[in-house]
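dude i think i finally got it to work??
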Amino acid sequence: MGALLIGLITAPVLLLDQASKLFVRSHMMLYESIAIIHNWFDITYTLNPGAAFSLFVNTPGWFKSVVLILLSSIAVVVLVVLLLRSPKVGMNSIALALILAGAIGNLIDRLSRGLVVDFIHVHYYTHSYPIFNLADSAITVGVTLIIVHSIFFADETT
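look at this
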């Protein structure tokens, strides 16, 4: 069942993530911003040298290039193993497929250019949430699904 989820969830989300990053890179200048919903939502092209939501951005270069790649690679392997061992499709396995897509998407960026392309900018006037991408969103949705499932459906095994 896990291989099915990798094909039906992970692959399309990963393709959408990479296609959106390619579109932004090829059609926008770095730090260019396009308002989609004025004072609420912009497409803003940035490069993130740190982890999700700019974590570890001020750490030494070796940390980002070695440790983050190593941790991401380990996470990808663990997620693939967990998915392939999943006996049935359920909330947790769907969440793992989303997290896997996000982890691979940002790992591809980190391996190919050393930086992750971020472009989704949610803000209210000057109050701004860190700029992120579709891979970050997939990870966040996946983790949220696992938390919700563990709180409200703890007795079910999926």
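The two ends are 12 Å apart (CA to CA).
im so relieved honestly
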